[in-house]
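The pair is quoted verbatim underneath.

:::
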Amino acid sequence: MEKLMRAPSRYVQDKDVILKMKEHTTMFGDSFYIIASKTAMKVTRPKIEKSFEGTDVKLVFETFNGESSMNEINRIRDLVKENGSNVIVGVGGGKTIDTAKAVAHFEKIPIVVIPTVAATDAPCTALSVVYTDEGKFSEYLFYPTNPEVVIVDTKVIANAPSRFLVDGMGDALGTFFEARACLRSNSPNLVFGGITQAGFALAKLCYETLLEFGYEALLAVEKKTVTPAVEKVVEATTYLSGVGAENGGVAAAHSIYNGFTVLEECENTSHGRLVAFGTLVQLILEGSPTEEIEDVIDFCLSIGLPITLEEIGIKEIDEQKIMKAAKAACDEGESIHYILGGVTPDQLFDAIIAADNLGKHYKELI
């Protein structure tokens, strides 16, 4: 299997960096169609407009409807054609960004991504998660290239609710362990190639950065301040996690997330929180050393990520429901099968129960 490494063409991160958007994007076009959620529009539009003051660049702003569905993608495609825009800009969270990436792909024009929260690694990846208009998962769309430009304004990130940074760290927590599992089983990454040393190194650095700076960064963001720790952790949740996962691959943690989404009890639990618990389950599945598992648990406890079923919404353990999630996580085509030796629903069920019991034990010791 040939090794393959991909990443955004340009990644820019700093406090107030949106004010420099013009110098990082005008080489791609002169008519920008900017898709943003209502909150993101309010926060970023004045800065974007100020960046392009005194230029002939056309800026058109469109409010995202809230769901990255094919209907929403096609609605915006029609508007882009009407306006003759030649650059797409996605501003906001994961669903806004995924919609913007899809529009840019189908219209064959460059994409600029400006995340306003650090809850997801969507900004850097060459894929979109598509849902129905009702919010149910529909499909993944894979693209031949990554975004042309990713602009991360850490002042904007720090002013968002701190729970988003925690969600991002939860999603990023699995990056190294899933990449390691794929490497062990010689499984493909998310761009359907072998894992490069560079890709794996980014995944490893992601985990190391979270452990060293995650707690400090959370404390800073709780006070809406930008410190070196915040800069490092935002880079970890956005770039290292996104590029690390895409080039390192995913394994059990993300399949376990998919499995839990079939349970009504988990509907209000964020992607990052479910992936964090899934990471703990994956380590138990793999028979990882106790010291490694304890490091992950200590980190989760320090920033408020879940280590028990109750914390992801499952107040009472119903074995039938847990098995339902386990079976969904082990469906054909799920990345959990990249675990060396494979995983059966029975094995996953046991690991979930064991992880929950271990988490309860550690919480009792606090």
Notes: The mean pLDDT is 96. Residues 197-222 form the longest helix (26 residues). The chain has two domains: 10-158, 161-365.
